[in-house]
Design a protein that fits this description.
40% helix, nine-stranded mixed beta sheet, alpha+beta, 16% strand, ten-stranded mixed beta sheet, 44 helices
């Protein structure tokens, strides 16, 4: 189909119409069909077929997870993937069945479990909705951004259109200005830079901070921007003009064939067919590679303008292809909790089974009690068999053994712990204005359990600031490694050149490789200073060094490269090189080369690369070279070997034919290019070697020593050669002279048996060394690891490696780094916690493979930071991150988890004991809603412990790294600790139950049917005991913790005060709190329960401290004995390093056109040059521009419309500059005022106004006033004595108060039983068989103050039996009349609702027919 013209207002057709039918491609026949199968065919410019866009994805990018319709089902699906949520939902459904179906009976209302579950799930859903709302907003902002597109049509053949990113389609030609983001993957057709050069920042994509050099397609750059014969006053070609390029685009026709979308951000395979400028010229097939693709997510830099054709949109772009969900990492403690929940579930089932068995054994005896079962015909009212139905009854009753609030509370602790990590001023880097960051809050406590650290070297242990320090040339070494910056062998090198002509030639050949064999571009900053834009720090350092040694690379224009050489006689010579081909560096090739035509016309191959690959391909090298390389490596320098080769014109022509064929290949282009380069890079003459220093970061050695003292094993994974890695190991104290160091360096093709025997030999040596008290260390090469993997000798290798304190792997690739992490993580049992730390994009696989990933925000960008779970600015901060925050968070979380299970175990055991007092009927001790409030009331105190508890001060933790072993070995949460927790809960539950037993004596004293008052009293004691316990286990008592305990008690008081006033919720609970506090027994128990618990806990703490102290206890004892050390203030944090001298922040000026070679500078062209052809000039002067939408709606700095509309006419002046973008700036909105940027250097180190420095407040630094509740034997003694005195006084009080009781009991049925603590005179026994009328003659046993209560009893009296308690119609209690059917459903036994004479009993129920009291005035 033909391109659809715009309407009269310049509007394009809607997207659906514009994209047309799917499957339309240019061309026809079988060839076109085959091309469409392998590649996407995209016609552009005048031949653009709008319909082709329909077969490709749109440009809308979506990162949100939900829509309004899918939020509820998807979020529920996610939440019920958590085992605890599914468990409590199932329990709620069982409760509902028990209440409504009659299958079995339950005393627990399903609302009491479902309501808290829904509350927590709602909170999680709200957080998920909030997060997704922010993603929707971000998507909207991204997709609604404005872009410029060049359209064919209108009066002048071309016009500019404004569209949103969403509407961008494949085949659109976009115009971009400097500092703008790429909205799609674009092949540049023309650029303001000389020869089509442009620069992009890929920091958002791959994390690299160095600008990447890209090129417009040479064929289209030539067609659109070159004027034959035009030049400036110096005879140089004039730089391109945007209006000229736009004008010529109207007549340009072409087609792009592009590979199908892939993830590769560095490679691209395609071709472009472009007709020649003259009609007689044939179209040219231009190969396209990664240098010709601008990726979405990158930003145009140092380039005035670029326009190009869109080849990939939306989900097909490289950025989206590489956007994967961060792998979900389950923390080690979470796995422990999941296993613990299985144990808890099993325990719950066993308790239910025991109760079920006891019920079935004893139920016959309860059926004989007339007040429980007055009608023998109505015994069982459940459908399921008793043995099964009552198992469900008890299983539901004990459901609180699983803490329902555990996960929600853990999330709160995790968020708070992450906040304190981010706020730590001692992990804030002043120079980079970089605090610590946390991306995975659930792993904060994982930092305290690390057993293995896998570390990158360059940029992680070192600064990634490269300087050339030593060189080997002409058989000699020049330069020394000193603390002074730069290369210090310049004078010696010049002297050698003056004294020896052959040495001078060798040095020139050496420097020629440094100055020419690279891809560096020359640019200028805003101050006019020349700077190098290099793709790696190494390459930039070598070019800088060559300039300092007299070979100054000063310009690159297309294929032309200019070097100014300072000769020994003081003259300067300008040398011109023509770059004919570049064989790029890859991790597989480990070298790069350029083919150039030198000033003399000779063809040269200039190569630099790793020593092992270069020496294999050389024809001649200095005999001392390998010795020099070893010396460089021993000093920790990064080495490169330089070589050259001269080739004839015929050889070059033949090779170049193969090179072009490989360049144009549409299949396996990279492999073919590598093979072509291999054919050329052989028989080289080695001209020298370089030694580049990468300085260590501050305090690296100290940090490594601390890590090793903590028992953490360190594996350093680097791409350096073996000797370099060895010496870096010694300088960083990764290795020490006392270690037994062995090297595994074998060929990748070694046999399996040979490698196995070598590993066995190393294992024996290490065993011998370890037995002699030595530490073991191993160095292994990438080739050896390759052999281990291919020969499947992972297990023998791992057996050797795990014996080592240190492993250093050199010459390893990024995938090998990740393989080693996976090997340790999956090959060792029990699975250790691994941590990977790195700073570059090549470290991302390793970081994501480990349980904990730490990124360093260094000079290699933020790719590692963005992929990591935590980020720090320097390696030295790792010791504080692990030894302080990690250790504290682990211990805090262990306390939190153990307490959460402990308190619920105490509650459940009380319910289990209570079944013996309730006839195994499944009655809960507590009212349902009171029971539900348990986890809510106790929520806050343990949260404060999980956030603020600090068993040792920070400087103690750093001084004694061995304290870290608790987390590394999992000593604070394991099966032993869980067993100890269960035993402790057993003891504390027995204490509460014992006090309850003696205080209430099976609840038949004081008040008949006082089940609810009794349960509420015991519940209050339980809350007091739980809060006492959290205070006992908490070391740091600050105002937040104290407030949380007060809030807990206040919540209990407020809940009871409200709940006991709302009669319709539970009539039985009405005013129960008033009766409870008026009962002296309540207050006695309130003091006795925590008092007895203190005695038990204190004795246990003394036993552990005296006979089984852990390392922390020993350290604390040592510190407490050292008064001077204890009272000394903690050491002040080291002063931040002074900020490096930096230039004032600069904003790229797109109008200045600061492209390579100064093409965009105002002086780069003559102002007398005509702006364009007369036709184009006439068209441009007649342009009419309108805005299709209000300026306020447009987010970007441009507005366009079709020039044929009848709106206002605007004329404008064209500036004859390469950087002129007025064509796209007509309606540019006023720029948003920018806050002034403070120059740190000029302001004397003043911090920027936008600094991210954390707050120094007491709260954020965890420096609030506090009391350290450290248990020592003295404190335990005083605590025990004080508690003993309190209990003694309490006993005296009980004795006094018991003498004031004015009641006695009359037992009229059942076996005689004397209540505990009573005398014979207080109980009268006279049997009165059921159905008889009996007369009782009683005598007051002693003088009592009236009124005297007479309690009539039947023994045993199970007023808490489930059928007894539930045979009440609550509406009748308030005087309401209820229908007979409703009464019969509750009061099942007829004697409980009718008298023997047929009169209705009101209110009905077993209570009304069995309880009566008397009072003697």
């Amino acid at each position: 189909p033909q391109p659809q013209p715009p309407d009269d207002l310049g509007r394009r057709p809607p997207p659906a119409e514009r994209r047309g039918a799917a499957g339309m491609v240019a061309g026809g026949g079988d060839g076109a069909a085959k091309a469409a199968e392998d590649f996407r065919v995209i016609p552009f410019a005048a031949s653009h077929d709008i319909g082709t866009a329909g077969q490709f994805s749109g440009n809308t990018v979506k990162t949100s997870k939900y829509t309004l319709l899918t939020f509820v089902p998807l979020n529920l699906l996610e939440q019920f993937q958590k085992a605890a949520n599914s468990y409590f939902l199932g329990i709620s459904m069982l409760m509902l069945l028990g209440k409504r179906s009659g299958l079995f009976t339950t005393s627990v209302n399903f609302i009491t479990t479902l309501a808290p579950l829904l509350l927590m799930m709602s909170a999680s859903a709200a957080l998920a909705a909030h997060d997704d709302y922010k993603r929707h907003r971000a998507d909207q902002r991204t997709n609604s951004q404005q872009a410029r597109a060049i359209r064919m049509g209108g009066k002048h053949g071309v016009y500019l259109d404004t569209l949103t990113w969403t509407d961008i389609a494949v085949g659109d030609i976009l115009v971009l200005k400097g500092d703008e983001d790429l909205p799609a993957d674009v092949v540049p057709l023309a650029s303001s830079g000389a020869d089509g050069v442009c620069y992009v920042s890929t920091a958002n994509l791959d994390g690299e901070t160095n600008l990447k050099i890209k090129f417009a397609v040479p064929a289209t750059q030539t067609v659109l921007c070159t004027d034959d014969g035009e030049s400036d006053a110096n005879g140089r070609a004039l730089p391109p003009l945007l209006n000229q390029a736009v004008d010529r685009l109207a007549s340009l026709k072409g087609t792009i064939k592009a590979e199908h979308p892939t993830k590769s951000i560095h490679n691209f395979t395609g071709s472009m067919a472009v007709p020649g400028r003259a009609e007689a010229e044939q179209s040219t097939e231009q190969p396209l590679c990664g240098d010709h693709l601008l990726l979405r997510g990158t930003q145009l830099k140092n380039t005035a303008w670029v326009f190009g054709i869109v080849v990939y949109t939306g989900r097909d772009t490289r950025m989206v292809k590489n956007t994967s969900k961060t792998p979900m990492k389950l923390a080690n403690l979470e796995r422990v909790v999941n296993r613990a929940m299985l144990i808890v579930l099993t325990t719950q089932a066993i308790l239910a089974l025991l109760s079920d068995v006891m019920f079935n054994i004893s139920q016959a005896s309860f059926h004989s009690y007339w007040y429980l079962f007055p009608d023998p015909s109505v015994i069982s009212n459940i459908i399921l068999p008793d043995w099964l139905g009552y198992w469900f009854t008890f299983f539901i009753l004990y459901c609180n053994l699983m803490p329902i609030s555990l996960y929600a509370a853990m999330e709160v602790c995790n968020v708070c712990q992450a906040y304190f990590i981010r706020s730590d001023l001692q992990m804030y880097d002043e120079e980079q204005d970089c605090p610590a960051t946390v991306r995975s809050t659930n792993l904060c406590h994982e930092l305290g359990q690390v057993s293995y650290i896998f570390s990158d070297k360059t940029g992680t242990l070192t600064q990634n600031v490269m300087e050339l320090k030593r060189i080997s040339v002409a058989g000699r070494i020049f330069g020394e490694v000193t603390t002074n910056p730069g290369f210090n062998g310049t004078e010696a090198l010049r002297s050698a050149m003056l004294l020896d002509s052959s040495a001078a030639t060798a040095v020139d050949n050496f420097l020629e490789v440094l100055a020419v064999s690279h891809t560096v571009m020359v640019a200028e900053d805003a101050r006019g200073n020349v700077k190098f834009e290099a793709e790696s720090p190494d390459e930039g350092a070598l070019v800088e060094a060559a300039r300092s040694l007299g070979w100054d690379f000063c310009a690159r224009s297309g294929q032309a490269l200019t070097v100014k050489v300072a000769r020994a006689n003081g003259t300067t010579e300008s040398l011109q090189y023509t770059v004919l081909a570049v064989n790029a560096f890859t991790s597989a090739r480990k070298r790069m080369s350029v083919v150039v035509r030198g000033p003399s016309g000779q063809h040269l191959v200039l190569v630099k690369g790793a020593d092992n690959v270069m020496l294999e391909r050389c024809s001649r090298a200095e005999p001392t070279l390998e010795e020099h390389l070893s010396e460089f490596a021993q000093e920790g320098l990064r080495t490169l070997v330089l070589g050259r080769r001269s080739i004839s014109q015929d050889d070059f022509a033949k090779w170049h034919t193969d090179y072009e064929r490989a360049q144009n290949a549409m299949q396996d282009r990279e492999a073919q290019l590598a093979q072509v380069a291999e054919d050329l890079e052989s028989g080289m003459e080695i001209v020298g070697a370089t030694g580049i220093e990468d300085k260590l970061q501050d305090d690296v050695a100290e940090t490594i020593v601390k890590i090793r003292e903590a028992g953490i094993k360190l594996w350093v994974l680097t791409g350096d050669k073996l000797e370099t890695a060895r010496n870096i190991g010694y300088s960083t104290k990764v290795l020490s002279d006392e270690m037994e160091v062995m090297i595994l360096d074998v060929d990748a093709k070694i046999g399996a048996e040979e490698l196995r025997s070598e590993l066995e030999r190393m294992k024996v040596s290490f065993d011998t060394a370890i037995a002699g008290g030595q530490e073991a260390a191993m160095m292994v090469t990438g080739a050896s690891l390759e052999a281990v993997a291919e020969l499947d000798l992972r297990r023998p290798f791992l057996e050797v490696a795990t014996k080592c304190k240190v492993v250093i792997a050199c010459r390893v690739s990024p995938l090998q780094k990740a393989w080693m992490v996976r090997l340790v993580r999956t090959g060792i049992s029990p699975q250790p916690v691994t941590l990977s730390i790195g700073d570059g994009a090549n470290d991302v696989p390793m970081i994501q493979e480990a349980q904990v990933g730490v990124g360093i925000s260094g000079r290699e960008g933020r790719q590692a930071v963005n992929a990591a779970d935590f980020a720090i600015a320097q390696f030295r901060f790792l010791q504080r991150l692990l030894l302080v925050h990690g250790r504290l968070n682990y211990r805090r979380m262990c306390k939190f988890i153990l307490y959460s299970f402990w308190k619920n175990a105490v509650l459940t055991l009380l319910l289990f004991y209570y079944t013996f007092l309730s006839g195994f009927s499944g009655t809960s001790m507590f009212d349902g809603y009171v029971w539900t409030s348990f986890n809510v009331i106790l929520f806050f105190p343990i949260i404060a412990t999980g956030v603020f508890d600090r068993d040792v001060e920070d400087h103690h933790a750093l001084r004694y790294p061995k304290l870290y072993e608790n987390g590394r070995l999992g000593l604070d949460l394991n099966m032993v600790k869980m067993t100890e927790m269960l035993l402790s809960s057993l003891v504390h539950s027995l204490i509460i139950f014992g006090v309850m037993w003696y205080a209430f004596d099976t609840m038949d004293t004081m008040h008949a049917n006082d089940y609810y008052g009794f349960g509420t009293s015991v519940f209050t004691w339980l809350i007091v005991a739980m809060n006492y316990r959290v205070v006992f286990i908490t070391t740091t008592i600050n105002w937040v913790f104290a407030a949380s305990v007060l809030v807990s008690f206040g919540t209990l008081a407020m809940f009871l005060g409200i709940y006991c006033r709302v009669q319709w919720l539970s009539p039985w609970m009405y005013n129960v709190d008033i009766h409870m506090v008026q009962d002296p027994l309540f207050w006695i128990g309130l003091l006795a329960v925590p008092g007895l618990a203190i005695m038990v806990d204190s004795f246990k703490a003394w036993l552990l401290l005296e006979f089984l102290p852990d390392h922390k206890g020993l350290v604390l004892e040592r510190v407490s004995l050292d008064d001077q050390y204890l009272n000394a203030p903690p050491p002040a944090p080291p002063p931040p390093a002074p900020p490096a001298a930096t230039a004032t922040a600069e904003h790229a000026n797109s109008d200045a056109g600061t492209s390579a070679g100064g093409a965009g500078s105002p002086t780069a062209r003559s102002s007398s040059r005509p702006m364009s052809s007369p036709k184009a000039l006439q068209a441009l002067q007649a342009l009419q521009w309108t805005t299709r939408q209000p300026l306020a709606v447009l987010r970007s700095s441009f507005t366009f419309d079709h020039p044929d509309s009848g709106a206002r006419r605007m004329s404008f002046v064209r500036h004859a500059r390469a950087g002129d973008t007025s064509l796209v700036d007509l309606h540019q909105p006023a720029a948003t005022p920018q806050a002034p940027v403070v120059d740190v250097e000029a302001a004397g180190g003043i911090r920027k106004a936008t600094s991210r420095k954390p707050s120094s407040g007491e709260f954020s630094q965890q420096a609030m006033p506090h009391f350290q509740n450290v248990l020592t034997w003295r404190r335990i003694l005083w605590l025990a004595l004080a508690t003993g005195v309190l209990l003694l006084l309490l006993g005296i009080l009980v004795k006094v108060k018991s003498n004031e009781v004015v009641q006695f009991s009359v037992q009229y049925d059942g076996k005689y039983r004397q209540p505990t603590g009573t005398s014979d005179s207080e109980l009268f026994y006279q049997e009165c068989p059921l159905g008889n009328s009996c007369l009782f003659n009683v005598t007051v046993p002693e003088d009592m103050t009236p009124p005297i209560a007479v309690v009539y009893e039947v023994t045993p009296f199970y007023q808490n039996y489930y059928s007894y308690q539930t045979s009440v119609v609550f509406a009748q209690l308030t005087g309401d009349v209820v229908g007979e059917n409703a009464v019969a459903k509750v009061c099942i036994s007829k004697p409980s609702r009718e008298t023997s004479s047929g009169d209705a009993i009101f209110p009905c129920g077993l209570v009304a027919t069995s309880v009566f009291n008397d009072t003697i005035e």
